[in-house]
Specification:
By secondary structure, this protein is an alpha+beta fold. It is 40% helix and 20% strand. The protein has seven helices and four strands. It has a four-stranded antiparallel beta sheet with strand order 2-3-1-4, with helices on both faces. The longest helix has 11 residues, at 121-131. The chain is globular and about 40 Å long. It binds guanosine-5'-triphosphate and magnesium ion (MG).
C-alpha cells in the first residue's frame, strides 16, 4: 500500500548546497515527490512542529537551529514510506548512521543532522498538513 512521509532538508544541508543532491537520492530510492517547497520556519512554527520535545534539554537549540535558515519541505509517497524513509536517512546521531545513509553522508552532529523524516503514518499526515495546503499536494 502506498503511504506518505514528510521530510525537511534541514538548514545545515540547504546552506551547504546539498539540497539538490539529497532530492536526487530521494528520487533514486523510489520515493515519489507529492509536494515540494523551500521555506523558512518561524520560531513559533518550529516550537509547534517539535512540541513533543518541549522541556527536553535540546529543545531550545533544536528550535534555534531549525529557524536559522531555509529548509526544503516535501511530501513523499512510497510503499511503507515512513519506515523505509527512516532507514534511508539513518540514525538521528550521524555517528550511529549506517554507511550510505543521508545522515552519514551529510550530517555533522545530532543537532545539525541534515534531514527530518516522520515517525508514524499519523504524524506524516499531520506534518504534511503543517507545511502544505491541500492544493499544493499532488
Ligand atoms: P527528526 O527526523 O528530525 O524528527 O529526527 P529523529 O526522529 O531521528 O529524532 P527525534 O524526533 O527524536 O528528535 C528530533 C530532533 O531533535 C533530532 O533530529 C535532533 O536534531 C534533535 N535531537 C534529538 N535527540 C537529541 C539529543 O539527545 N541531543 C541533541 N542535541 N539533539 C537531539
Ligand atoms: Mg522525529
Amino acid at each position: 500500500m502506498e503511504t506518505i512521509t514528510l521530510t525537511m532538508i534541514k538548514p545545515d544541508a540547504v546552506a551547504a548546497g546539498n539540497a539538490g543532491a539529497i532530492l536526487g537520492k530521494i528520487a533514486e530510492a523510489g520515493f515519489k515527490i507529492k509536494a515540494l517547497k523551500m521555506t523558512q520556519l518561524t520560531i513559533s512554527d518550529a516550537q509547534r512542529f517539535y512540541e513533543v520535545h518541549k522541556g527536553k534539554p535540546f529543545y531550545e537549540s533544536l528550535v534555534e537551529f531549525m529557524t536559522s535558515g531555509p529548509i526544503v519541505a516535501a511530501v513523499l509517497e512510497k510503499g511503507n514510506a515512513v519506515a523505509d524513509f527512516r532507514t534511508f536517512i539513518g540514525a538521528t546521531n550521524p555517528a550511529d548512521a549506517a554507511e550510505g545513509t543521508i545522515r552519514k553522508l551529510y550530517a555533522t552532529s545530532v543537532t545539525q543532522n541534515a534531514i527530518h523524516g516522520s515517525d508514524s503514518d499519523e504524524n506524516a499526515q499531520i506534518e504534511a498538513s503543517f507545511h502544505f495546503a491541500q492544493r499544493e499536494m499532488f
